[in-house]
Amino acid sequence: MSSQQPAWHDGERLGELMAEFAGWRIGRGGSGHWWAVRGNELVRTLNVEELRARLHELEEIAAVPRSA
To answer: This protein's superkingdom (predicted)?
Structure first.
Protein backbone atom coordinates (compact mmCIF):
# COMPACT_ATOMS: atom_id res chain seq x y z
CA MET A 1 0.00 0.00 0.00
CA SER A 2 1.34 3.39 -0.97
CA SER A 3 1.84 6.01 1.74
CA GLN A 4 -0.03 8.48 -0.50
CA GLN A 5 -3.16 6.35 -0.83
CA PRO A 6 -4.71 7.42 2.51
CA ALA A 7 -4.12 11.10 1.61
CA TRP A 8 -5.76 10.55 -1.80
CA HIS A 9 -8.71 8.87 -0.12
CA ASP A 10 -9.02 11.74 2.37
CA GLY A 11 -9.01 14.23 -0.50
CA GLU A 12 -11.78 12.30 -2.21
CA ARG A 13 -13.87 12.25 0.98
CA LEU A 14 -13.23 15.94 1.54
CA GLY A 15 -14.50 16.75 -1.95
CA GLU A 16 -17.64 14.68 -1.36
CA LEU A 17 -18.38 16.40 1.96
CA MET A 18 -17.79 19.88 0.55
CA ALA A 19 -20.19 19.18 -2.31
CA GLU A 20 -22.79 17.69 0.04
CA PHE A 21 -22.66 20.41 2.72
CA ALA A 22 -22.52 23.85 1.10
CA GLY A 23 -21.82 26.62 3.58
CA TRP A 24 -19.55 24.49 5.77
CA ARG A 25 -15.76 24.71 5.85
CA ILE A 26 -14.57 21.12 6.13
CA GLY A 27 -11.13 19.63 6.67
CA ARG A 28 -8.95 17.11 8.42
CA GLY A 29 -6.40 18.16 10.98
CA GLY A 30 -2.98 16.78 11.74
CA SER A 31 -4.42 15.02 14.77
CA GLY A 32 -6.57 12.91 12.46
CA HIS A 33 -9.80 14.64 13.40
CA TRP A 34 -12.30 15.57 10.71
CA TRP A 35 -13.88 18.96 11.36
CA ALA A 36 -16.57 21.23 9.94
CA VAL A 37 -17.25 24.88 10.78
CA ARG A 38 -20.20 27.08 9.85
CA GLY A 39 -20.59 30.40 11.62
CA ASN A 40 -20.14 29.59 15.29
CA GLU A 41 -20.95 25.88 14.86
CA LEU A 42 -18.10 23.37 15.10
CA VAL A 43 -18.26 19.62 14.60
CA ARG A 44 -15.13 17.55 15.23
CA THR A 45 -14.73 13.77 15.16
CA LEU A 46 -12.23 11.05 14.28
CA ASN A 47 -14.67 9.25 11.97
CA VAL A 48 -15.68 10.81 8.64
CA GLU A 49 -19.02 8.96 8.58
CA GLU A 50 -19.86 10.28 12.06
CA LEU A 51 -19.06 13.78 10.79
CA ARG A 52 -21.43 13.26 7.85
CA ALA A 53 -24.20 12.01 10.15
CA ARG A 54 -23.81 14.92 12.57
CA LEU A 55 -23.84 17.44 9.73
CA HIS A 56 -27.04 15.88 8.37
CA GLU A 57 -28.60 16.26 11.83
CA LEU A 58 -27.61 19.93 11.98
CA GLU A 59 -28.96 20.52 8.46
CA GLU A 60 -32.30 18.98 9.47
CA ILE A 61 -32.48 21.14 12.60
CA ALA A 62 -31.69 24.28 10.55
CA ALA A 63 -34.43 23.40 8.06
CA VAL A 64 -37.18 23.27 10.72
CA PRO A 65 -39.03 26.61 10.78
CA ARG A 66 -39.02 28.27 14.19
CA SER A 67 -42.31 29.52 15.55
CA ALA A 68 -42.49 33.20 16.41
So the answer is: Bacteria
